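Pasting as-is:
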Amino acid sequence: MPQYLISISWAPELLVVLFLLLGVVEYLHPLRRHKRARPRRWLVNLALTGLSFGVGVALVRPAALAASAWAQSQGFGMLPWSGLPFWVQFLLGFLWMDATFYYWHRANHIYPLLWRFHNVHHVDPDLDVTTSFRFHFGETAYSSIFRIVQVSLAGITPVIYLTYEIVFNLATMFHHSNVALPLIFERRLNKIMVTPRMHGIHHSAVGRETNSNYSVIFSWWDRLGRSLRLNVPQEQVVIGVPGYLLPRDNGLRSLIFLPFHHQRPYWRWPSGKASVRHEETQAASNYLMP
């Protein structure tokens, strides 16, 4: 077995431990109140997670590693061409993976066809650690094309790719969790990393807020891309997509077929009223993030 595969053999156990730990902490110290009963919602989320992970293991990871092996064998990509020391290439490669994923995530919100699939992640009426990998398996499958391009262009080594994948998954669970961190601590942490309050705004039922805060690990990319939004108090955040908040919308069968059906107006409540927020309400709040 290659050394880089041996070095990440403990990763699944680490992910499971963090998942369970966050689940306990968010139950004891929740940031937001749940709107739906947990057991049924958790079962649906875990079923979608299983399907998505299955496609990821069977398709995305092998495709990315094959692209990495090809780039290494051909000496192709920005990192091999740079001639920089290994540790500099590792750092730059890790940052490249996170920065380019920011734009991929943003594309999944901008382009209607991609959003049809990504919307399955956002229509969850609550947000907690079980939402972390609740993605449509179709989105996971077509993301393999992005991964091939992403890895090949930079000449990402298997070590960089697999390290990033581990940290990516850990960060995804952390910022999707419903953990109420001390506000002062979270404000400081958010200068570097994506945090639960920041990503909670990304899952807001207000369209302008959902179309912000795309970063996964480092929050810098939203600052650079001018897509950062922090001035929404958590008590005003309603999680979900207004057009898909009926209980039947979050059944497993409905979610699997959602991208293939006629799409409802996403940002209008069932009453037809648009989901908006008045900026003056935010400005007057004493719960502003930094």
